[in-house]
TrEMBL record:
Keywords: Membrane, Transmembrane, Transmembrane helix. It is a single-pass membrane protein. It is found in: Membrane. This is SPFH/Band 7/PHB domain protein. Its main location: membrane.
């Protein structure tokens, strides 16, 4: 075959391929193609397979109709209190009109960035640092309203504006940290003081209740103790009164005389010798004279007879039989008893010479009708 003919065929096939490539255009989903004919807008191609006039129509732009996210770098912004803060923003927008986005603005992304920066400076310039840090929602709403109004004629809809970060200067950060630390310490001190106050109040109330209960317990204890002491004193006084009554009744019933008082004196002599300091006790040899003086002194006491007629009511104190002693001890006791009886008789005779009992021999005569001579007189209760 002629090589010239082959070249012509190859050129024809290439022409056909180029022609088809310029005629058939495939637009992806969520995209829009802007077609120009001789440099003038002709139509917008939808997603899918489209046919254009080759070498006449040209797809100039392919516009993305999806929502786009653009993050702008931090921008320095001056607040109302003359503090410079860095704010970086994130904008969510979507192209709603491909023709306006193509022919109304040259670069809508750059335009949105510059508009965001100027609007942000305008909004933050009317706030102080504290308000800027705590008014993110207010700043976002202000930015979105201004951007949506400005970009509407560009065929762009701003859906959302977010502030990624607000960074004050390092010195301001340090001051804010100190302030925050001081505020937290203040709140901690206040909470601690309130806790201590509540604890002190509860402790005081507890002490008050405890003191009240203790006082009530002490009062009841004192009342009961006073009642017990009163009853005890009454019973003791009644007992003492009864004892004194019994003693005086026994004394009056017994009708004591001077002989009994002399005998009581002799019984008190051993008690005088008691005690650690009494090493030696000498019985006077002239006991007869002492008894005579005792009898004369007793005789002068008013109301005490020198000789009584005996007890009115005899009290039975048990067996009156004398104990039998053996040896010289029995003889010694008998001689001592005899001496005591003689001394009593002599004292009675000295006190009352006309009584008819002038000699010691009169004592056994009285004992003949009663008890034995060696019998000791019954014990008489002590007088008060």
């Amino acid at each position: 075959m002629n090589p010239y003919a082959l070249g012509i065929i190859a050129l024809f096939v290439l022409f056909v391929v180029v022609l088809l490539a310029r005629t058939v255009r495939i637009v992806p989903q969520a995209r829009a193609g802007i077609v120009e004919r001789f440099g003038k807008y002709k139509e917008t191609l939808p997603a899918g397979l489209n046919v254009v006039v080759p070498f006449v129509d040209k797809v100039r732009y392919l516009i993305d109709l999806r929502e786009q996210v653009v993050s702008f770098p931090p921008q320095p912004v001056i607040t109302e209190d003359n503090l410079v803060v860095s704010i970086d923003t994130v904008i969510y927008f979507q192209v709603t009109d491909p023709i306006a986005a193509t022919y109304e603005i040259a670069n809508y992304i750059q335009a949105i960035e510059q508009l965001t920066m100027t609007t942000l400076r305008n909004i933050v310039g009317g706030m102080d640092l504290e308000e800027t840090l705590t008014s993110r929602d207010q700043i976002n709403s202000g930015l979105r309203g201004v951007l949506d109004e400005a970009t509407g004629k560009w065929g762009i809809r701003v859906n959302r504006v977010e502030l990624k970060g607000i960074d004050p200067p390092p010195s301001i950060k340090d001051s804010m940290e100190k302030q925050m630390r001081a505020d937290r310490e203040k709140r901690a001190v206040i909470l601690t003081a309130e806790g201590q106050r509540q604890a002190a109040i509860l402790t005081a109330e507890g002490n008050k209740q405890s003191m009240i209960l203790n006082a009530e317990g002490d009062r009841e204890s004192l009342i009961l103790r006073a009642q017990a002491n009163r009853e005890s004193a009454i019973l003791r006084a009644q007992g003492e009164a009864q004892a004194i009554t019994n003693v005086f009744q026994a004394i009056h019933d017994g009708q004591p005389d001077q002989s009994l008082l002399a005998y009581q004196y002799l019984q008190m002599l051993p008690k005088i010798a008691e005690g650690d300091a009494n090493k030696v006790w000498v019985i006077p040899s002239e006991i007869t004279k002492a008894l005579e003086g005792l009898g004369s002194s007793i005789g002068e006491v008013a109301g005490i007879p020198q000789k009584s007629g005996g007890v009115r009511h005899r009290v039975d104190y048990g067996s009156t039989e004398p104990a039998v002693l053996s040896g010289g001890l029995d003889n010694e006791l008998s001689s001592t008893t005899k001496a005591v009886e003689d001394a009593i008789a002599e004292a009675e005779h000295a006190a009352n010479p006309g009584s008819g009992r002038g000699t010691p021999d009169a004592a056994p005569a009285d004992d003949a009708a009663g008890d034995a001579p060696a019998e000791e007189p019954p014990a008489t209760p002590p007088t008060t």
